[in-house]
Amino acid sequence: MDNVKVIINGKECIAEKGELLMDIASRNGIYIPHLCHHESLRGQATCRICIVEVMENGKKKIVTSCIFPVVRDIVVETNTEDIINMRKTLFSLLMAEVPGNETIRSMAEEYGIRENLRFYKSRGNECILCGLCVKACEELGCNAIATVSRGTTKKVSTPYEEPSIECIGCGSCASVCPTGCIKIEEGYGKRKIWNREFEMIKCSVCGKYFITKEEYDYINEKCEVLEAPVCKSCKQNEVAKKVLESLMIEEK
Ligand code: SF4
Ligand code: SF4
Ligand code: FES
After folding, report:
1. Probe ligand 1: pick from 145, 212, 215, max atoms within 8 Å of CB?
2. Which of 104, 130, 131, 159 is the most exposed place for a label (fewest CB within 10 A)?
3. Taking the mean position of all CA atoms in its chain, how far away is CA 177?
4. 193 in ligand 1 pocket by Cβ < 6 Å?
5. Which domains does the chain have, with CATH numbers?
């Protein structure tokens, strides 16, 4: 793979040709604010907060770093006056949309934006319609949620807002949501998400509830291996690994 030279805020970074600018920056410890990009999911190019200034072939342009593949040597500035002013406008609009959301509020405050009553257009929830949750569910192969409706009633939902039979209750959508607005209720061996209640199963090592039955079955079906259920922290534990091995021997 060919390498390209990328200078970001004066720092020289080596990158593979075609690599996304956002990934190059984060690998080199340079933070570019973002909302619709997650480390495990490519940016959705919906929020535009990740805009930066790129000098390429002697020409200056503004690009969306989460979807910009670097194919030649470039010089990048992430915080020019123009970029800061554009982010101010974007945060101002987001503050009008989700005034009560803590993540947006604290990011906006870094740009001196405190509230925006002028363009107030809240849809009554804290969703910024970034699309990450829908993408996460789609990548899993479940397709349980989608963006529905238009204008001020546009939102992410299960079909007809009914509990979806496609949903496995994994919570991936909630874990990638930048505003934390997808609610999961958990307790007494049950998990509730998107209006559907799931039975949970226990880790065979520590005994704690950690996964829904539907997600466990789904993983086993996809991976075609029937394993005793073991939570993430126990899997990382050497002693637990040995217990798991003996359990698997017993199963055979
Ligand atoms: S909890 Fe349901 S909607 Fe959310 S990612 Fe998992 S399957 Fe999709
Ligand atoms: S619920 Fe969260 S992840 Fe989904 S679109 Fe809204 S803000 Fe984005
Ligand atoms: S993070 Fe790039 S457009 Fe949202």
Report:
1. 145
2. 159
3. 5
4. yes
5. 3-79 (3.10.20.740), 81-129 (no CATH), 132-240 (no CATH)
Q: What is the mean pLDDT of residues 137-160?
A: 93
Residue ID of nearest Cα to ligand 3 atom 1: 34
pLDDT (0 to 100) of residue 74: 97
d(CA 5, CA 60) in angstroms, rounded, equals: 17
Query: Do 22 and 43 contact (CB within 8 A), yes or no?
Result: yes
Taking a C-beta distance cutoff of 8 angstroms, is the pair 150, 72 a contact? Answer: no
Is the confidence at residue 14, as pLDDT, over 80?
A: yes
Task: Say which amino acid occupies 223.
Answer: C
Q: Is the pLDDT of residue 240 over 60?
A: no
- In angstroms, what is the span from residue 167 Cα to ligand 2's centroid? 16
The answer to whether the beta carbons of residues 11 and 60 sit under 8 Å apart is no
Say what the pTM is. 0.88
Give the number of whichever ligand sits closest to the CA of residue 67.
Answer: 3
